[in-house]
Design a protein that fits this description.
Length: about 325
C-alpha cells in the first residue's frame, strides 16, 4: 500500500556529510519525508540582519551541504520539506521578533526577503516537494501582514512546489495568508495533559478539543493540516507544556513521551483532512542519540520510536 501521509522527520543538520548509514534508520521507520532546516541567525533585534550560509555555518546548513542532504535522501525515496528558520541570539523566542521603528522594520523585511528567496531558489533548483516560508514568527506577521502577503507572491515567482508556513500551536488561527499557501502548517505543541505520567487515554482526551478546532479551521480555509513539527520530550509532564526545552527538566520519562506520541498519531493520521507531520527531531548519528538517560525530544532509541514506526507503516 503506498503512503498516503507525509510521514516526516525533522532531520537535524550537522558538520558532516550523510550517507546510507545515516539514512537507513529514517527508511526503517517508514518515513517518506525529511525536513531540512538551514538556520539564519539574528544577533541583535535592534539591527535585525539575518546571517546565513556563512563561514561559521554547519555543513548541513550551507548550500552545498543542503544539496548533499537532499540528493542523499532523495536517492532513498525520501522527499524534502526545506524549512529555513531563524535563531535569535541567546535563544530568544522567534515569535517575539519585532522592530521598534519603521527603519528597523524595513531592515528586517529586506534581510528576511533576501534570506527566504535564497532558499526558495535552492528549493526550486533541487525540485523540493514543500517549501516552508517561516517558522513561529507571530509578532512579525501580526505587525506586518502586507509584507508577508507580498513575500509569498515573490516566492511563487521563483518556486513552483507546495508552500506552507510553520505556525506555532497558539498562533495558527491568526495567520492572515493561508489562502495563498497549500498547507496550514502547525508546530503542534498543544497541551494535552497536566499529569506527570499521562496515560494513553489521558492524552487522547486532551486532544479532543484541539482536534475539533483544528478540523473546523481546515474546513473554513479548505486546506489540509500539516504538522510542520510535532513531538514530546521523554520527561515528566511532557504533555503539559510540550514546547518547553528548559534544561532543568531532567527527569527521564519514556512512558509519558510514548503515550503522548501515540495519542497524537491515533488522533490525526487517519483523517483525510490531515496531510501528515514531521517529528521533532531526528539526528543523523542514531548510535549517539537518545537512550536511557536522554530527556530530550528525539524519539530515537526510545519506546516512542517503535510507536512512530508502527503508525508510519500504516500510512
Amino acid at each position: 500500500m503506498p503512503n498516503t501521509k507525509i510521514n516526516g522527520v525533522s532531520f537535524v543538520s550537522s558538520r558532516d556529510t550523510i550517507n546510507r548509514t545515516h539514512i537507513d534508520p529514517v527508511v526503517n521507520i517508514h518515513a517518506n519525508y525529511a525536513s531540512i532546516m538551514p538556520f539564519g541567525f539574528i544577533r541583535n533585534l535592534e539591527h535585525p540582519k539575518v546571517l546565513y550560509n556563512w563561514n561559521r555555518q554547519m555543513f548541513g546548513e550551507s548550500k552545498s551541504g543542503i544539496k548533499q542532504y537532499i540528493h542523499s535522501l532523495n536517492k532513498r525515496g525520501i522527499e524534502i520539506m526545506l524549512k529555513p528558520q531563524l535563531w535569535v541570539a541567546r535563544g530568544e523566542f522567534t515569535g517575539l521578533i519585532k522592530a521598534d521603528h519603521e527603519e528597523a522594520w524595513l531592515e528586517l523585511e529586506q534581510s528576511y526577503t533576501k534570506y527566504i528567496l535564497y532558499f526558495a531558489e535552492l528549493a526550486e533548483e533541487e525540485h523540493v516537494a514543500i517549501f516552508c516560508i517561516g517558522t513561529e514568527l507571530e509578532g512579525f506577521i501580526d505587525k506586518r501582514p502586507n509584507y508577508w502577503k507580498q513575500l509569498i507572491k515573490n516566492i511563487k515567482k521563483i518556486y513552483k512546489g507546495k508552500l506552507t508556513y510553520a505556525a506555532n500551536w497558539n498562533e495558527y488561527d491568526r495567520v492572515p495568508f493561508w489562502d495563498q499557501l497549500d498547507y496550514i502548517g502547525i508546530d503542534a505543541y498543544f497541551p494535552v495533559s497536566d499529569l506527570k505520567t499521562p496515560t494513553l487515554e489521558d492524552c487522547r482526551l486532551g486532544w479532543l478539543k484541539h482536534k475539533d478546532t483544528i478540523h473546523a479551521f481546515s474546513i473554513m480555509h479548505d486546506k489540509p493540516i500539516l504538522f510542520t513539527e510535532y513531538g514530546y520530550r521523554s520527561v515528566d509532564f511532557s504533555g503539559k507544556q510540550p514546547w518547553r526545552s528548559d534544561r532543568d527538566m531532567k527527569e527521564v520519562n519514556f512512558e509519558a513521551q510514548k503515550n503522548a506520541t501515540q495519542a497524537l498519531l491515533e488522533t490525526f493520521w487517519g483523517e483525510d483532512w490531515f496531510a501528515g507531520g514531521f517529528v521533532w527531531k531526528w539526528f543523523h548519528h542514531p548510535e549517539r542519540t537518545g537512550g536511557e538517560d536522554d530527556s530530550q525530544f528525539s524519539p530515537q532509541n526510545k519506546p516512542a520510536e517503535a510507536i512512530i514506526k508502527d503508525w508510519y507503516s500504516k500510512y
